[in-house]
Here is the input.
Amino acid sequence: MTAQHEPTTEELAEARAEYLVGLLWHVGAFVILNVFLWWLDLAVGPSGVQWAFWVTAFWGFALAWHALAWLIDGRQVQQRMARRYLEGDLPPEP
Here is the structure.
């Protein structure tokens, strides 16, 4: 068994900041491209293909998962659960 490296506070902060930058790029691309797609749908009118709603809906769902992952990771759920298992605070799995 090998010893695991405990990340320092600076390493955790750097990783979290890097993830946030990725999330912000995702939000920026989402807004810019969806504004363009909605403008295009409105410019073509009802006789053209109306698909901006579906792109926005599915991409928005993916963006929500990205944001949720950032929020959960920031709480360091996995590390806290591992500590609780090691300390014996959690019951063994069935």
